[in-house]
UniProtKB/TrEMBL annotation, chain A:
It comes from the Eukaryota. This is Rab-GAP TBC domain-containing protein. InterPro entries: Rab-GAP-TBC_dom, Rab-GAP_TBC_sf. It comes from Stentor coeruleus. Gene3D superfamilies: putative rabgap domain of human tbc1 domain family member 14 like domains, Ypt/Rab-GAP domain of gyp1p, domain 1, Ypt/Rab-GAP domain of gyp1p, domain 3. Residues 40-265 form the Rab-GAP TBC domain.
From TrEMBL, chain B:
It comes from Stentor coeruleus. GO terms for molecular function: GTP binding; GTPase activity. This is Ras-related protein Rab-21. The keyword Transmembrane helix does not apply. Residues 186-198 have a biased composition (Basic and acidic residues). Residues 173-204 are annotated as: Disordered. The lineage of its organism: Eukaryota, Sar, Alveolata, Ciliophora, Postciliodesmatophora.
């Protein structure tokens, strides 16, 4: 076992070196980066790798600084025009959104100390409000705050010299820039699943039907049991998709899962469906024997606290296998 | 003694303490900034009352307006509903009225409703006059409880009352076979987006 761990460590450091090399080439190859990040990335480099794969940073090294400046300046304009001047052109919908945002801010990552600070709470308020105003079809939706918190943590991490997951400390002076980066990355990712947040959550409902359909093709017996017990996907996996599994995993494992989402084009929309399928099938033996109450209690409280990174990797691999079976083969196993 | 299994639902404006009340009752837990509910949480508890025992299957629904349409799926076939407002928030009390109206017209006829004025540990910030709330509920013939999920005040008492009222209202059905809507089906509005429906055939 110790031998294996050593091997893992050396593989990891080799991969991180490759990632670093890729980051510093003049024209970064996104496909190569995707391949590398499928196996994870260390916490220090995650910030820049994600920004590239989300499409926020340009692949061209020499243009990065310039484009960052443009995007950040644009966001600062929103801050003055949309947020600071909000009382001048606020509709009733905007007021309702802001109230909801204010309700949710103290409840976001409520176990992480920096989220209790005024600086971070103000920052969340601005990002979420500006996002809501610029997305009038959905407006602010609960769950966007969860997504936002993840980018904030990942981008802050390499710039803080204290453990941001459990300590408070001086926040970096570049806080305003980080805010802009969080805004744009949040926007880019949510744009790829925007219909999840439309009124009546049409996108999520379609995804839930897809999950059920695939499960039925893989394990008809299990799905029959779900039907007999009257368990429906919406009972438990609505939250999985609405919050991209943030509520289902400890943070370090969640980040590893999102590495996986980012290593596949449209991963948040496409791979997440297969992750949901794999999660359910992972516990099929337990679920098969359980009745409604036990099934639902289990599925709403997955035992992921005991998980290691390996388990997430296994989950991702399994999801990828199903993805390759079904994604371009609508009739596979029918 | 007979055990009755029944579905109840929590309803109310966002951040009034629906989840906190349910958690306090079922697990005796309280978290100051309880995470917002997405869609609905499911909790169960077996309650002993003098007449017998009641298994409460609680659907704790999300308060955001966006989930309101989904909430109707959860109160369908429910035997009981707990409508919660925050005593420090006027608008959350106004919402109680609309929930009662909706339940009376859409839910099961004999649904038992109780109202909780939550956060009564924050008496200083109270915005809803207590006699006004009591009078309103008396007219509606609905029991009103002052609760605090934080201190636990009134929580046990309220759920016990809900359980016994449900038992009384449904004891005629005890012993009858069938699964008698212990959970209630949640139907998702089928959209036309279903991909590849109807297309059967070989794979790939």
């Amino acid at each position: 076992m110790a031998q294996e761990e050593k091997k893992d460590l050396s593989l990891n450091s080799k991969r991180n070196q490759q990632i670093l090399k890729e980051l510093n080439t003049e024209d970064c190859d996104l496909n190569k980066l995707r391949e590398l990040i499928w196996h994870g990335v260390d916490d220090k480099n995650r910030s820049i790798v994600w920004k590239l794969l989300i499409g926020y940073l340009p692949t061209n090294l020499s243009r990065r600084e310039l484009l960052l400046n443009i995007k950040r300046t644009e966001y600062f304009h929103y801050c003055t025009q949309i947020y600071d001047a909000r009382s001048e052109h606020q509709t009733e919908k905007h007021i309702i959104d802001l109230r909801q945002i204010n309700d949710d801010i103290p409840r976001t990552q409520n176990e992480i100390p920096i989220f209790k600070t005024q600086e971070i709470q103000e920052m969340l308020r601005r990002i979420l409000y500006i996002w809501a105003i610029r997305h009038p079809v959905s407006g602010y939706v609960q769950g966007i705050n969860d997504l936002c918190s993840i980018f904030l943590l990942v981008f802050l991490y390499p710039l803080c010299d204290f453990n941001i997951l459990c300590e408070n400390g001086p926040l970096p002076i570049e806080l305003k820039n980080i805010e802009a980066d969080v805004y744009w990355c949040l926007s880019n990712v949510v744009d790829s699943i925007l219909d999840y947040f439309f009124p009546s959550s049409t996108g999520i409902q379609v995804a839930l039907m897809k999950i059920e359909d695939i499960l039925f093709r893989i394990d008809q017996q299990l799905m029959q049991h779900f039907r007999d017990e009257e368990i429906e996907m919406i009972h438990f996996s609505f939250r999985w998709l609405n919050c991209m599994f943030i509520r289902e995993f400890p943070l370090n494992l969640l980040l590893r899962l999102w590495d996986g989402f980012l290593s596949i084009g449209e991963g948040f929309r496409v791979l997440s469906v297969y992750v949901a399928v794999s999660l359910i099938l992972k516990w099929k033996e337990i679920l098969r024997k359980a009745s409604f109450n036990d099934m639902l209690t289990f599925l709403q409280n997955l035992p992921t606290n005991m998980w290691h990174e390996r388990d997430v990797e296994e989950l991702l691999s399994q999801a990828y296998i199903y993805f390759s079976w079904f994604n371009n083969s609508p009739n596979h196993l029918k | 003694m007979a055990t009755m299994e029944c579905k109840i639902v929590t309803l109310g404006e966002g951040r009034v303490g629906k989840t906190s009340l349910a958690l306090k009752y079922v697990k005796n837990e309280f978290h100051k900034d309880e995470i917002s509910t997405v869609n609905a949480n499911y909790l169960t508890k077996l309650v002993q009352i003098p007449q017998g025992s009641v298994q409460l299957n609680i659907w704790d629904t999300a308060g955001q307006e966006r989930f309101r349409a989904i909430a109707s799926n959860y109160y369908r076939q429910a035997k009981g509903a707990l409508i919660v407002y925050d005593i420090t928030d006027r608008k959350s009390f106004d919402k109680v009225v609309s929930w009662i109206k909706e339940l009376k017209s859409q839910a099961e006829k004999n649904i038992v409703i109780v109202v909780a004025g939550n956060k009564c540990d924050m008496e200083k910030e109270r915005q809803i006059n207590r006699p006004e709330a009591l009078e309103f509920c008396r007219k509606m013939q609905i029991r009103h409880f002052d609760t605090s999920a934080k201190s636990g005040n009134g929580v046990e008492e309220m759920f016990m009352e809900l359980a016994s009222q449900i038992f009384e209202a449904n004891k005629g059905e005890l012993g009858q076979s069938g699964r008698n809507s212990r959970r209630g089906k949640i139907t998702v509005e089928k959209t036309k987006h279903r991909e590849n429906s109807g297309k059967k055939g070989g794979c790939c």
